[in-house]
Specification:
The complex is a heterooctamer, with two copies of chain A (165 residues), two copies of chain B (309 residues), two copies of chain C (92 residues) and two copies of chain D (381 residues). Chain A is an alpha/beta fold. Chain A has six helices and six strands, in the order βαβββαβαβααα. Chain B is 38% helix and 13% strand. The chains are: A alpha/beta (165), B alpha/beta (309), C alpha+beta (92), D alpha/beta (381). Chains D and E meet through α4, α5, α8 and α11 of D and α4, α5, α8 and α11 of E. β9 of chain E pairs parallel with β2 (69-71) of chain F, so a sheet runs across the interface. The complex binds thiamine diphosphate (TPP) (2 copies), iron/sulfur cluster (6 copies) and magnesium ion (MG) (2 copies). One iron/sulfur cluster binds next to α1 of chain C.
Chain lengths: 165, 309, 92, 381, 381, 309, 92, 165
């Protein structure tokens, strides 16, 4: 099972990103689970979301405490909270920035940066980092999930962007 | 700005609702709370109904409030404040509490006032407790994700009255809560808007001075639920008043008075535009709906002016 | 994030007393922009103070003093209402 | 001794306690309580602010606002009234508002019925409120005084419901001995709470939002308070008995000495059972009664100890849970789990169905199924 | 398979069932259900009259008026909403109104909290309404369809609550397989009731006043209906499984074959427990899980049979009763009374407190007291 | 008497509320029920709130009702009728029910309308269901033994607002429920009195014809709670109207109209006398209270006349 | 007093259907006085019919027929409202 | 234990009469219990009330099914219901009338008549029939119970009347 934890600010679309990755993985034939952490906090407040991916059906219903992958959608969060909390050595941390924040350079985790404008791109980026699912699955997932709100080509482009970020 | 200085003074150095709450960026509610409470010189005790104001200001073990504050549930803020006020009268009579007269203020959203909180409010008004009930009316259940309430205006799209292939937003007119409060024949009732703090402050002073229940119905914007950038909020609330969608008036011991007369009759489009919840109304095919809204506004305004005459 | 307390240590009925240090530092909600004040332009009208949803625009004895960035969410309202343009939103 | 109904007796207790605030809404069979109390007030016999609210939800809500503002607060209700206020009863307990409630037990709708059973009490059995059942008018009076002390003990601080059977107690006139007003008010003493909302010099925020990081711990305060209440009830019972000569404790053991069979029940039915027990004892049967007086907190250990020596227990429930067994029988089963004692549960008296001594004999002698007095069998055991 | 949250899955079930009337009031975490359903309606995807009432008390009241008028009626709520409507839930059951309710389980105030526990379900456990708990989004969908058939069977005719854990299920996106609209609506069939209020040619008086001479008998109809519901659930579960390939029954036995220890729980926690059971089985432990799916009616016999062969049972309650033991543990104790099986009850997850596999291991290995995950001991066992 | 013949006809041989109920000798409620229901030509479905009317007319296994009748609880009659009406609309749309248009009528006492039933009523009015809500207002909670309600007039002695050594009866003014209903801007609102069946029948007809919610507030006497012999009831209700304590008027789509103008201004004493609940007011030492009541009546009357102008 | 039925024999949910024979004979509530009609004086105004709280004053096709003493509670209202004095209260 | 059942019509004061007798017996040193039967019925409807009298405290809380004494405040009731239901042979039936109604003449019970204008007198009558309590106790009880509503002398007179009826 791959467990992903998303760090973001309410309003940045971490919930959607977590679902997007799940949707894409589902298309890639995996079993998935995606859920955010809820509170009374409003737009701008720190929040988390989770994605689980596995070869067998996922039955557990607790939050992710030992993530294999951590995605930080807002780099400023690394000052406020230990985003690598509970990670194994060598875990993958994906930061939405151009350079690795100093707070993370120390930690013995694999830290990758990818500047992504939108959550779709971020999902693409992590798919790229994980080696699956395919750009196409991510794009299809994006259209399926957000097709109502945004134009399809734009979404596909964003997914692309993520892979090349 | 003399009045602002007075408001500042009445804080005695501590804002009644301080920093550190988790209300959205640019939320309109704190302005209502500050203006109303800072208009009261003496000590005050605050009761809140469940809603954005409540969930976002006191996450255990922290609080953003610097004045005594009590929350019990969603639908009962008027009953809770009535209980506190009754306790105060009983204890005063026994000289168990002394000191400067306390003013009791309840804050509730439109849901906690127009809908699920109406009965407790009506009962408290009938019994004549001495308190101010202030509704911050953002025209929907915002805390739970923008569902329609009795205060949601005709045509507004919410998550439970969505515009869609066939949906046109809310199909009922908004409940006229101010008129309902007036029908209770209480000493003081007023309708105000958050951005018009000067007018609101005057009304809050009068409410505090009333020898009995007072009701303030304050239009308070919600950038998230209305769909606009926070910085737009003054323009939008001004439009609400200038288009006469939301007249500013008071009923003091039965006497109606317009507290502000818009200079020129702006068309209702000025109010609708720039808010996502109304976007579908401005599509050409819905022009008749906008006309309907304009008619309703004009009729209501004339009726109100008649009462004020 | 303060240490989470055990049930025996909690106040009766969950009563909370205001505590400046415990207030969540909601300034982190800002998403790119923050207000900057040119005090030379300030005429002490207190409009920013009364309008600020987060009590971040502060006054003392009726005089505007400063903006508490620890709590400012960057909503731009103060900049909008400041009559003299003393407040400008700038990138963080 | 005076001839008073349970309702009148409770009204007199309230007059002696002289609460600061009584927010209340009428409902049969609680009405005599508030009417008699109101008439005493109208005659200037006390100083209470009676708040005639517009619903029971508001009655309990106003009571919370009042109690947390430092005023001694009482109310009274029944059945639908309790159901309507149930949401706020939980909150009163969680906010530790020491409100005393006179409850005239009445069957819940539907169908609508005004007579006694315990379904209303059962509705709030998880609320965190204390529930003390009484057997007659005299005890209704005594326990009202006890309830005030119990609710307000700073190691308890919970709402207390004094539960008396509707009509059977509220409207039955029986000889009642009242304490002198002076003695009664000396016993209850003054009202004190740690944080009054009205203390503007030391502002507090009451009723905050709790996330998963604190909810469990805040709720658990009530569990601990309930544990302490268990001892507190017996302590206060003994203290009060020194004034009244009558003892109220969490459980009452009646002729359990050397008993093989025991009946377990609550409320006014215990009186009828006592008569039957006496008759059967005279006939040589070794039978006794365990009356559960404190239903919340449930005296698990007390029940276990009292019944340790019996072979078989029969629990009489005056409430039902369609799709499950009677609430009291279920809890007694949990208490006696693993004891090896034989256990049988019966449901009786719903909606005011009478229970006569003959019926109790039938139950004891195994002549009826789970539902006593039901017309034609339920085929359930 | 689609990626859907439990809330979305239920909304799709409602679209397929296409009820006539849905009176509803918003509350977290039920809101996604009604919002998604409303948006489907706004897009003209169904014919339902959505009545946006002003409170939950009115939601259930309007639902009763609607259901008894011959219209298929559904609603949805959570926590405080259920508490506020509790009075009328009892009446809906007594009037035999076959209303289906999607419940997003959430902790009751106070303190106010929006996350999951089962205290709201427990509040109405005596109401006469059926309560079916689900484990995940897929089952939430399946059981909504089953619930309609169950509620409307003329030998049952009771309200049915489909209980899904707030957030953990309502807001978790999981792969869900939906039936085709045609199959789904063929399965649920048409709505029929014996006496429609709107039958002006054959006027009826519904909701009469019942005195002690009839209340007990009228209430007992529900007890009998609950008994029948127990079989009906399994029948319908098998019928539905022929369409879905997934079986829902009153209890689910997971690896109880040859088990010495058994865990008993409800809802989404069962999934986490299954993972732990598998791990422990791999480690050679002889442990299994019994999931109580139908909480009302409570499958007493099913529980007894399923656990007949184990030595020890651990019950996990996601609700608490201050002053008593957890409701589920208490009922399991009553079911297993006299069986000689060792029994332990634990309370966990109140107000959304997490329960991780490690915690479950701690419980099994006896490393915690009655309250699992509580910060510092309660000293209660 | 043409109208009475029409009422008789509309019964088609069966009284909607028949014989065999256990309402008190001379109870005023059945007159209200008969007049309202017999004014409706087509089929009707009735919902009742808990109260005297409900408990006394359907003791299982009997019923005094000959029309479809539903009772659920005390506070929710408006929600219940809204549910039934919604079902009717949904089923009609699907042609699952056919036939003559059904009229939905809810009856509740003043307690079930002014107090505990207000919120459900207000919500149903806002949503615009098509139904008639008829309050039989006997000015107290009678079914439970005459406790004060929001409708109990100032000074009236009830078991929870008793007159006594210090008690003077109810100390608050009665809630103006008719005005509150008017503030909801529904198609039709009217105030009527039981003994004035001719006026009431006209209003019921209009209410039934309204394309939306209609509210009827009907003063209905209670010999037991008011303290008079049943045969006195006409004199007393006439006095209520003639003294202007209870004006008969209607508000039809916002238009106020007095439906009856008392010829000469009888003093309020005519209304107070002969009712035990007011006896203490007529004692010399309470003359000022009576004066107060008279003033209040005069002011309200003038305000009403102004609206009608 | 009809036989009390067993729970199995009761209608679903306690629904009741109107039944003339089952109606309690509330005429027994009368306490001394009963109305007596002099039909010769009756002008068919139907006032007694509309005012009668107990539906005891009966009409058929718009014509007053009689007073059903089985249900008349003797409230005297009909006698009070009868314009022609056709109804008089007499001792039982 | 003496068990008394009162038959009357709502409004005739059977509840008060039952309490009055109890109050008087209490003054005579007995233990007592008095309670009416309640329903939705209104003024004029048939109703029952009960009085229990004993030498020891009364604990049972069920209604009286085998009365030793039956009091019929309204003779018309004998047509509607079997007022002697559950009575032992030779039980005492006290009817508020001048002559024994035919329905009762058959029954093998002791039937006494006493025409009493008010319930106070009726209590007096039954006290006379039972041989206790004393006229004084009845009078005192009446004053204690009804003193607020009626004038004391009138009450004492009424009690007297009952004894001599
Ligand atoms: C009895 C009950 N029903 C529903 C809720 C859920 N709820 C909490 S706040 C809220 C909406 C509040 O709306 P409003 O009063 O307008 O305040 P706002 O959120 O707009 O600030 C709702 C529906 C609740 N807490 N209690
Ligand atoms: C929730 C609830 N609270 C209280 C009651 C008790 N109750 C039943 S009827 C009634 C009074 C009704 O008064 P009103 O509506 O004026 O009708 P009336 O009795 O005068 O006919 C009361 C208080 C109840 N049934 N339900
Ligand atoms: S949702 Fe709207 S009302 Fe609520 S906090 Fe955010 S901006 Fe304010
Ligand atoms: S609004 Fe501008 S001018 Fe006014 S006080 Fe603030 S900074 Fe100074
Ligand atoms: S930007 Fe907004 S939050 Fe920050 S100081 Fe200005 S008004 Fe206050
Ligand atoms: S109490 Fe009054 S309202 Fe009720 S039935 Fe008797 S007379 Fe009618
Ligand atoms: S006396 Fe009363 S009940 Fe009898 S017929 Fe006349 S009006 Fe009807
Ligand atoms: S009121 Fe008199 S005249 Fe009129 S119908 Fe009746 S009996 Fe005849
Ligand atoms: Mg709102
Ligand atoms: Mg009334």
């Amino acid at each position: 099972m791959i467990e992903v934890r998303w760090h973001a600010r309410a309003g940045q679309g971490a919930k959607t990103a977590a679902q997007l990755l799940a949707e894409a993985m589902l298309r890639a034939g995996k079993y998935v689970q995606a859920f955010p952490e809820y509170g009374p906090e409003r737009r701008g407040a720190p929040m988390r979301a989770y994605t689980r991916i596995d070869r067998q059906p996922i039955r557990r219903h607790d939050s992710v405490t030992h993530p294999d992958v951590v995605v930080v959608l807002d780099p400023s969060l690394v000052h406020e909270s230990d985003v690598t909390d509970g990670m194994e050595e060598g875990g993958l941390v994906l930061v939405n920035a151009t350079t690795v924040p100093p707070e993370l350079s120390g930690a013995n985790v694999r830290c990758v940066t990818a500047e992504a404008s939108v959550n779709v791109a971020m999902a693409g980026a992590i798919a790229a980092a994980l080696g699956e699912p395919s750009p196409n699955d991510v794009a299809d997932a994006a259209v399926a999930l957000l097709g109502k709100k945004a134009d399809a080509d734009a979404l596909r482009a964003a997914a692309e962007e993520g892979f090349n970020a | 700005m003399a009045r602002l200085k007075r408001l500042a003074e009445n804080e005695h150095g501590v804002a009644p609702l301080g920093s550190g709450h988790s209300l959205c960026q640019g939320c309109g509610i704190p302005l209502v709370v500050r203006t109303v409470l800072d208009s009261i010189a003496g000590p005050k005790v605050v009761v809140s109904a469940t809603g954005c104001l409540e969930v976002a200001t006191t996450r255990f073990p922290t609080t953003a409030w610097n004045v005594p504050w009590l929350h019990v549930a969603f639908e009962n803020s008027a009953a809770v404040v009535a209980g506190a006020e009754s306790a105060y009268r009983a204890l005063r009579r026994r000289h168990a509490v002394e000191g400067e007269e306390i003013t009791f203020v309840a804050f509730a959203g439109d849901g906690g006032t127009y809908d699920i909180g109406l009965q407790a409010l009506s009962g408290a008004l009938e019994r004549g407790h001495r308190f101010i009930f202030c509704c911050y009316d953002n025209e929907a259940y915002m805390n739970t994700g923008v569902q329609r309430s009795g205060a949601t205006p005709f045509g507004a799209s919410t998550t439970t009255s969505p515009s869609g292939k066939v949906g046109l937003g809310k199909l009922q007119e908004r409940k006229d809560m101010t008129a309902i409060a007036v029908a209770h024949h209480v000493p003081y009732v007023a309708q105000a808007a958050a951005a018009h703090w000067h007018d609101l402050a005057r009304k809050a002073e009068k409410a505090a001075a009333a020898q009995g229940p007072a009701f303030l119905n304050v239009l308070s914007d919600c950038p998230v639920g209305w769909g606009h950038e926070p910085r737009e909020f003054k323009r939008i609330l001004d439009a609400a008043v200038e288009t006469r969608f939301w007249p500013l008036y008071e009923v003091d011991h039965g006497e109606y008075r317009l507290t502000y007369e818009p200079t020129d009759r702006l068309p209702v489009e000025r109010w609708l535009e720039g808010q996502k919840r109304f976007a579908h109304l401005l599509r050409p095919e819905n022009a008749d709906l906008v006309k309907h809204i304009q008619h309703r506004i004009d009729d209501d305004w004339d009726a109100l002016v008649a009462c004020c005459a | 994030m303060p240490e989470l307390r055990a049930w025996q240590e909690l106040p009766l009925g969950g009563v909370v007393t205001p505590d400046e240090d415990e207030r969540p530092r909601t300034g982190s909600y800002r998403t790119g922009l923050r207000p900057e004040v040119d005090m030379s332009k300030c005429v002490n009208c207190l409009l920013c103070w009364v309008y600020c949803p987060d009590n971040a625009a502060r006054q003392e004895a009726g005089h505007f003093t400063h903006i508490e960035l620890d709590f400012c969410k960057g909503c731009e309202i103060c900049a909008e209402v400041c009559p003299t343009g003393a407040i400008q939103m700038v990138n963080e | 001794m005076q001839l008073l109904t349970g309702g009148e007796a409770v009204a007199h207790a309230m007059r002696q306690i002289d609460p600061d605030v009584v927010p209340v809404y009428p409902i049969t069979p609680q009405t005599p309580i508030i009417q008699v109390f109101a008439s005493l007030t109208a005659d200037g016999r006390d100083h209470t602010e009676i708040v005639n609210v517009e619903s029971e939800h508001s009655a309990m809500s106003a009571a919370i606002g009042s109690a947390l503002s430092g005023a001694r607060t009482m109310t009274a209700t029944s059945s639908q009234g309790l159901a309507l206020m149930s949401e706020v009863v939980y909150i009163a307990a969680a906010m530790r508002a020491p409100i005393v409630v006179a409850l005239g037990n009445r069957a819940l709708s539907g169908p609508i019925n005004i007579h006694c059973d315990h379904s209303d009490s059962m509705l709030i059995r998880d609320s965190g409120a204390i529930q003390l059942f009484v057997e007659n008018a005299q005890e209704a009076y005594d326990v009202m005084l006890l309830a005030v002390r119990l609710a307000e003990r700073e190691d308890v601080m919970l709402p207390v419901f004094v539960c008396q059977d509707g009509f059977t107690i509220t409207h039955s006139a029986e000889p009642v001995r009242l304490l002198s007003d002076a003695k009664a008010s000396r016993f209850v003493g003054d009202y004190r709470i740690p944080h009054s909302l009205l203390d503007v010099a030391h502002p507090t925020s009451q009723g905050p939002f709790a996330m998963p990081d604190y909810y469990f711990e805040l709720r658990h305060q009530q569990v601990a308070a309930m544990e302490r209440a268990l001892e507190a009830i017996d302590e206060l019972g003994h203290e009060l008995s020194r004034l009244t000569g009558r003892l109220y404790t969490t459980v009452e053991e009646y002729r359990l000495d050397g008993a093989e069979h025991a009946i377990v029940c609550m409320g006014s039915t215990a009186g009828t059972v006592k008569d039957v027990v006496d008759d059967l004892r005279d006939e040589g049967e070794r039978i006794g009664l365990l009356r559960v007086c404190s239903y919340r907190p449930f005296p698990e250990q007390g029940v276990r100890d009292a019944l340790a020596a019996v072979d078989a227990v029969i629990v009489l429930d005056r409430a039902d849970a369609p799709g499950a067994r009677g609430p009291l029988a279920t809890e007694v089963a949990a208490a006696l789990y693993g004891s090896g004692i034989r256990l049988r549960g019966h449901v009786y008296g719903l909606g005011g169905r009478e229970l006569h001594p003959e019926d109790i004999r039938d139950v004891i002698e195994g002549r009826c199924d789970r539902y006593v007095g039901l017309r034609s069998e339920s085929w359930l055991v």
